[in-house]
C-alpha cells in the first residue's frame, strides 16, 4: 500500500521551457522492473552519449500500467522525446484486455534488450525435484500451492497453468495460487513453507539460489541459461512451455518513422554497451535483443498467443 | 429529539447500504478465490451499519455547530480550494496560488492588505523553494503566455 | 569481533569530510521535507534520487545523502505534529496525541527536545539492532504466512479500541471507513477493479497521503476559520528553550521499551513505521495505566511514538536488505536506489557486498548523531515557526499540501479528493468521529484483506487455518485481550483519555 505512494519523483513533468530532454515513463512505482528499465536505460543512454541531457524518469503508477498507457495514447501521442518501459506484463495485460479497452496497436513497441526467464522454484527441502514429481502430486490430489507476484490469471500464474496443461491437468483450480507483493515476497512464503513453490522470474531468485534455500526445478527458456547451467529447462523435462519476461520500451504511435528508427538505434546502442551487460549480469537478466519493426512483429505474435492461451485456459471469456 | 448523531447514524447506514450494493456489482473472474472480491467489503458494510445503528440508538451530546457566518466562510474556503485544484494545471503555479492563498489568508486573519501581501509572498516564495531547493518541475505561467 | 571490524570497514567508507558534509545537507533537507505536511520521507528520498545522479555521486555518497534525508524526514515529521497538530507524515500521527497538548500548554520547546532525544534513542538502538540481528532477523519473515499476518493486523485494530474516542461505535465506524477506502482500486487477487466506477484515477486506489493531508491539514484550516481567534489552535505560547533533563530522564525507560517495540514492528514487512509508533504508544499507555495521563501532553507520550517510529524505520531496513522485501514506502524507494546502483538486496547481500551494508549502517549512525546535534539547538528555530502569523502560515501549509499532493500524480483529481477529505475531516471532528483509525484502516486494509484471502485460498476456506500456528495463536490472544481489556477498564477509568485529533 505504501509502495504506491512514492510517485513524487513523478513531479509533474510538464517542463517549463526546458530543451527537449528525453523522458522515460515507468508505469509503476520505484523499485520494480519497469522502474529498473527506465533508470538503467536512461542512465546508459546518457552515459554513452546517445542523449544530450540526463533522461528524466517519471513514475506513473496506476492500473497495472494502464494509466501510463492511456496517458500516452490520449495525451502524449506525438511526443518524440517520450519512451515508456514495457515488459511481458504489458503484453499480457493488453492480451487480456486489462487496460480498459486499449489495444496494442495504439503505441509502437520499439525494442527489448533483455529478458528475465521464468522459473519454477521450490524450497530446498521440498520432496519435489522436477516438474514430473510436482504434476504427479497434483494428479494424486495432493495439496499443491504456488505464490507469485502477479494477480490470479497474470503472467506468473499463467506459467503454472501452462505447465499444468502440458501435464494434462485441465482443472485450473487444481493448483492453488496466491498473488503476493512481488517475487521476493513469493519466495519468502515458499521458504517459510506456506506454499509448495514459487513462480516468477529468475532475477527475483538469484540471491536465494546462491544461499541454497531454494531449488529451481525448471527454467522456462528454449535452452539452459549461461549464468545458471544447472537449472533444467521445462522442455528437457517434456513440457513444451517457454515464458520469458522481456524488458523493453514502447513509444507513442504518432511519432515519425525516422524518430522510431532513431529510438530503435539508440536502444541497440544500449544493448551493445558494456554497462548494460554488467547491469544484466547483476540482475540475472539473459541477453535478448530485438529492436525496431522486428520487435513490433514479435510482440504482436506474443500478444496473439497470450490471448489465445488465456481464452483457452479460461482467464478471459 | 433529533440530534446530530442520529442524523449521522442514518447517513452512515445509507452510505453503508450503498457500499454493499455496489460491492455486489463487482465483476469477478471465475478464477476467484474462496472468499472472492465481495466478502470483505460486505463484511465492512455490515460493521458500519451496526455502528450507525448504535449512533442512532445512543447518540452523544449535541454538537456545537458554528454560526451561519462561519459556515459561509468555511463553504467559501472549500470553493476556493476546489477552484485552485482545477486551475493549477491550466493556469500555472503563480497566479492561482497567489489568489487562493490570499483568499484563505483573508478568511483566516480578516485583514485585506495583509492577505494580498501573504498571497503574493507565498506564491513567489513557495515557487522559488519548490523549483530551486527541491527541484520540482513547476510551471510558473500558463503555457504559451511567454 | 566481526561486528567491530565490519563497522570499522563501514566507517572507513562512510566517514570523510565530503560525506559528512553530505550528511549535514541531507539531514537539513530531510528535516524540512519531513516537517512539511504531505511531503514524507518516501517523497523526500524519491525527489532526491534524480539529484544524486545529476550531481554525479558515487554509490556510497548517494547512500549517505539519501539515508540522511530518510532519517532527517523521520525526525522532521514530529515538528508539525507537535507545533501545529498536523502530522508531517504518517508515522508522526501518534506524536500529535501528546505533543500538541504539551505545546498548547506552553511547553513546545520541551516537547521538541524530548522528541528529538527519543528519535535519537530509537534510531540509534534500531541501527545497533540492525547490525547485530539483521542476519538472524531475516529468518523471522519466514515464520509469517498469510494467517500470521492477518492475526497481526487484527491485533493492530483491536488495540485501536483502546485508543479510540469515548464512543466505540464511532471509532469502529472510522476503522471500517478506512478499510473500505482501502478496498477501492484493483483487487490484488483477481486484478479486477472494485469501486472505481470506471475512473482510471481510482484504479490504483486512494493514495493514503490524500486522506492524510485532507483529514489533518485541510480540516485544521477549516476549524481555524470557524474559530477565528477564539480557542485558536495556534495559541501555543512561546517560552525559553531549555533542555528538560528531568523529563528526558523520566522517560528514558519508555524510550528503550518503545525502541524495542518499534524495531520489532519495523522488521515485519507491512505497515512499517506507522505500526511501530502506534504499538509503542499503546504499549506505553497501558504500561502507564490510568495515572499516566497519556493524551494530555505528558513527556512519555511523546517519547514513546517518536522512539517507536524511528526504531521501526531502522527495523524496516532488515527485510529490505536481507530479503529485498521493503517494509515501508521509504524502504521501497531506498530499494529502488540500490537497484539503480546495481546493488540487489537479498540474502546474499551481507556476504557479497559487505562494504555496501556496513557503509549504509555507518551512514545511519552518522546521520543520527548529526541530527541530534542539529536538532537540539535548532529547536529555537522551529519554535519560531509558531510566531509566524496564522494568516500567513496556514495558507502556506495549504499551498504546500496542494503542491505535495499534486506532485503525486499531477492530476487535479487527487486535489479534489483531498479537499473532500478536508470537509469530511472537519465534520467528523465536530461530531467526534476519530480520524486516526481511518488512516490506519487505509494503511492496513489492503494487506489485511490480502492476508485473509490468501489464507482462505491455501486452506480451501477453512477458517481454523487462521489460528493454526503458535505465532498466530499468540497474536490472536494479544488481540482479544487488547479488545476486551478496555471494556472492563472503562468503568474503572471513568472517562478514558480522549484522542485529540
TrEMBL record, chain A:
Q: Does the keyword Cytoplasm apply?
A: no
Q: Does the keyword tRNA-binding apply?
A: no
What is the protein named?
A: Tripartite tricarboxylate transporter substrate binding protein
Q: Name one Pfam family in it.
A: TctC
Signal sequence bounds:
1-21
The lineage's top-level taxon is Bacteria
Q: Which CDD domains does UniProt cross-reference here?
A: PBP2_Bug_TTT (cd07012)
The family annotation for this protein states:
Belongs to the UPF0065 (bug) family.
Which PANTHER family does this UniProt record tie to the protein?
TRICARBOXYLATE-BINDING PROTEIN (PTHR42928), UPF0065 PROTEIN YFLP (PTHR42928:SF3)
Q: Provide this UniProt record's keywords sorted from A to Z.
A: Signal
Q: What is the lineage of its organism?
A: Bacteria, Pseudomonadati, Pseudomonadota, Alphaproteobacteria, Rhodobacterales
Q: Which organism is it from?
A: Kangsaoukella pontilimi
TrEMBL record, chain B:
Tell me the InterPro entries matching this sequence.
DUF1468
Q: Which UniProt keywords apply?
A: Membrane, Transmembrane, Transmembrane helix
Tell me what this protein is called. Answer: Tripartite tricarboxylate transporter TctB family protein
Please list every transmembrane segment annotated in the UniProt record, as residue ranges.
39-57, 69-87, 93-109, 116-141
What are the DUF1468 domain coordinates in residue numbering?
Answer: 7-137
Q: Which organism is it from?
A: Kangsaoukella pontilimi
Task: Give the top-rank taxon of the lineage listed in the UniProt record for this protein.
Answer: Bacteria
Automatic annotation (TrEMBL), chain C:
Domain DUF112, residue spans: 20-440
Per UniProt, what is one Pfam family of this protein?
TctA
Which chain regions cross the lipid bilayer? 7-33, 45-71, 111-134, 146-164, 171-188, 208-225, 260-282, 323-344, 356-376, 396-415, 427-445, 465-489
What's in the keyword line of the UniProt record? Membrane, Transmembrane, Transmembrane helix
Q: Which residues form a coiled coil?
A: none
Q: Record keywords: Cell inner membrane included?
A: no
Record carries keyword DNA repair: no
Name recorded for this polypeptide = Tripartite tricarboxylate transporter permease
- This chain's source organism reads Kangsaoukella pontilimi
Amino acid at each position: 500500500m505504501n509502495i504506491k505512494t512514492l510517485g513524487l519523483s513523478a513531479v509533474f513533468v510538464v517542463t517549463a521551457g526546458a530543451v527537449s530532454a528525453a523522458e522515460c515513463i515507468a508505469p509503476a512505482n520505484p523499485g520494480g522492473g519497469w522502474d529498473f528499465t527506465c533508470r538503467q536505460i536512461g542512465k546508459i543512454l546518457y552515459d554513452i552519449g546517445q542523449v544530450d541531457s540526463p533522461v528524466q524518469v517519471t513514475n506513473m503508477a496506476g492500473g497495472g500500467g494502464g494509466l501510463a498507457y492511456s496517458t500516452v495514447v490520449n495525451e502524449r501521442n506525438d511526443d518524440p522525446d517520450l519512451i515508456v518501459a514495457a515488459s511481458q506484463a504489458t503484453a499480457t495485460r493488453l492480451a487480456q484486455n486489462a487496460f480498459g479497452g486499449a489495444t496494442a496497436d495504439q503505441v509502437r513497441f520499439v525494442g527489448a534488450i533483455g529478458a528475465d526467464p521464468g522459473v519454477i522454484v521450490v524450497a530446498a527441502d521440498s520432496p519435489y525435484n522436477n516438474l514430473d514429481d510436482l504434476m504427479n502430486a497434483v494428479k494424486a490430489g495432493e495439496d499443491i500451492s504456488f505464490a507469485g507476484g502477479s494477480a490470479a490469471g497474470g503472467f506468473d500464474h499463467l506459467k503454472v497453468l501452462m505447465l499444468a496443461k502440458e501435464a494434462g491437468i485441465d482443472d485450473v483450480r487444481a493448483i492453488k495460487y496466491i498473488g503476493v507483493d512481488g517475487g521476493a515476497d513469493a519466495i519468502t512464503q515458499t521458504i517459510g513453507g506456506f506454499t509448495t513453490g514459487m513462480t516468477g522470474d529468475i532475477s527475483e531468485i538469484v540471491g536465494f539460489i546462491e544461499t541454497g534455500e531454494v531449488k529451481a526445478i525448471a527454467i522456462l527458456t528454449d535452452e539452459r541459461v549461461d549464468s545458471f547451467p544447472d537449472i533444467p529447462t521445462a522442455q528437457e523435462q517434456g513440457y513444451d512451455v517457454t515464458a520469458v519476461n522481456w524488458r523493453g520500451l514502447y513509444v507513442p504511435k504518432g511519432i515519425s518513422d525516422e524518430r522510431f528508427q532513431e529510438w530503435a538505434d539508440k536502444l541497440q546502442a544500449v544493448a551493445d554497451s558494456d554497462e548494460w551487460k554488467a547491469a544484466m549480469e547483476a540482475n540475472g537478466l539473459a541477453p535478448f535483443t530485438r529492436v525496431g519493426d522486428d520487435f513490433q512483429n514479435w510482440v504482436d505474435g506474443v500478444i496473439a498467443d497470450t490471448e489465445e492461451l488465456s481464452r483457452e485456459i479460461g482467464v478471459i471469456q | 429529539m433529533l440530534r446530530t448523531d442520529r442524523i449521522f447514524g442514518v447517513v452512515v447506514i445509507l452510505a453503508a447500504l450503498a457500499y454493499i450494493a455496489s460491492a455486489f456489482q463487482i465483476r469477478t473472474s471465475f478464477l476467484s478465490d474462496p472468499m472472492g472480491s465481495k466478502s470483505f467489503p460486505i463484511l465492512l458494510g455490515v460493521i458500519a451499519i451496526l455502528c450507525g445503528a448504535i449512533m442512532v440508538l445512543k447518540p452523544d451530546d449535541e454538537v456545537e455547530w458554528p454560526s451561519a457566518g462561519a459556515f459561509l466562510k468555511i463553504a467559501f474556503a472549500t470553493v476556493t480550494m476546489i477552484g485552485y485544484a482545477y486551475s493549477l494545471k491550466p493556469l500555472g503555479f503563480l497566479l492561482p496560488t497567489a489568489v487562493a492563498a490570499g483568499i484563505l489568508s483573508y478568511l483566516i486573519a480578516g485583514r485585506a492588505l495583509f492577505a494580498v501581501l501573504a498571497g503574493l509572498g507565498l506564491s513567489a516564495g513557495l515557487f522559488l523553494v519548490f523549483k530551486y531547493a527541491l527541484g520540482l518541475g513547476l510551471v510558473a505561467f500558463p503555457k504559451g503566455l511567454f | 569481533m566481526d561486528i567491530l571490524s565490519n563497522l570499522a570497514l563501514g566507517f572507513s567508507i562512510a566517514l570523510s569530510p565530503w560525506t559528512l558534509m553530505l550528511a549535514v545537507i541531507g539531514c537539513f533537507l530531510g528535516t524540512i521535507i519531513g516537517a512539511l505536511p504531505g511531503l514524507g520521507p518516501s517523497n523526500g528520498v524519491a525527489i532526491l534520487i534524480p539529484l544524486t545522479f545529476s550531481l554525479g555521486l558515487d554509490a556510497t555518497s548517494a547512500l549517505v545523502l539519501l539515508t540522511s534525508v530518510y532519517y532527517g524526514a523521520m525526525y522532521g515529521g514530529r515538528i508539525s505534529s507537535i507545533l501545529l497538530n498536523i502530522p508531517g507524515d504518517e508515522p508522526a500521527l501518534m506524536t500529535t496525541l501528546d505533543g500538541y497538548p504539551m505545546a498548547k500548554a506552553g511547553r513546545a520547546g520541551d516537547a521538541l527536545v524530548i522528541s528529538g532525544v527519543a528519535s535519537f534513542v530509537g534510531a540509534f538502538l534500531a541501527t545497533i539492532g540492525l547490525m547485530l540481528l539483521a542476519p538472524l532477523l531475516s529468518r523471522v519473515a519466514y515464520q509469517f504466512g498469510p494467517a500470521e499476518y492477518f492475526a497481526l493486523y487484527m491485533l493492530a485494530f483491536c488495540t485501536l479500541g483502546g485508543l479510540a474516542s469515548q464512543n466505540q461505535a464511532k471509532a469502529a465506524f472510522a476503522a471500517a471507513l478506512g478499510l473500505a477506502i482501502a478496498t477501492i482500486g484493483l483487487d490484488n487477487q483477481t486484478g479486477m477493479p472494485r469501486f472505481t466506477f470506471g475512473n482510471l484515477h481510482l484504479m490504483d486506489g486512494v493514495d493514503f497521503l490524500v486522506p492524510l493531508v485532507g483529514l489533518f491539514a485541510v480540516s485544521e484550516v477549516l476549524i481555524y476559520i470557524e474559530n477565528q481567534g477564539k480557542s485558536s489552535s495556534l495559541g501555543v505560547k512561546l517560552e525559553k528553550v531549555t533542555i528538560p533533563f528531568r523529563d528526558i530522564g523520566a522517560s528514558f525507560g519508555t524510550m528503550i521499551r518503545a525502541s524495542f517495540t518499534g524495531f520489532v514492528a519495523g522488521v515485519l514487512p507491512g505497515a512499517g513505521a506507522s505500526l511501530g509508533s502506534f504499538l509503542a504508544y499503546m504499549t506505553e499507555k497501558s504500561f502507564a495505566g490510568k495515572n499516566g495521563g497519556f493524551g494530555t501532553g505528558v513527556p512519555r507520550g511523546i517519547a514513546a511514538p517518536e522512539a517507536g517510529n524511528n526504531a521501526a524505520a531502522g527495523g524496516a531496513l532488515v527485510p529490505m536488505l536481507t530479503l529485498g522485501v521493503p517494509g515501508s514506502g521509504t524502504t521501497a524507494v531506498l530499494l529502488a536506489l540500490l537497484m539503480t546502483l546495481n546493488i540487489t538486496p537479498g540474502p546474499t547481500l551481507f556476504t557479497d557486498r559487505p562494504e555496501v551494508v556496513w557503509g549504509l549502517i555507518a551512514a545511519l549512525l552518522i546521520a543520527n548523531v548529526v541530527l541530534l546535534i542539529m536538532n537540539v539547538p535548532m529547536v529555537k528555530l522551529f519554535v519560531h515557526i509558531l510566531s509566524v502569523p496564522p494568516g500567513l502560515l496556514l495558507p502556506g501549509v495549504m499551498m504546500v499540501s496542494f503542491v505535495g499532493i499534486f506532485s503525486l500524480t499531477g492530476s487535479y483529481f487527487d486535489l479534489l479528493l483531498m479537499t473532500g477529505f478536508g470537509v469530511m475531516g472537519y465534520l467528523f471532528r465536530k461530531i467526534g468521529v476519530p480520524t486516526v483509525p481511518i488512516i490506519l484502516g487505509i494503511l492496513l486494509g489492503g494487506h489485511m484483506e490480502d492476508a485473509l484471502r490468501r489464507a482462505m485460498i491455501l486452506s480451501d476456506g477453512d477458517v481454523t487455518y487462521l489460528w493454526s500456528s503458535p505465532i498466530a495463536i499468540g497474536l490472536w490472544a494479544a488481540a482479544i485481550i487488547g479488545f476486551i481489556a478496555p471494556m472492563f477498564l472503562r468503568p474503572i477509568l471513568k472517562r478514558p483519555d480522549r484522542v485529540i485529533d
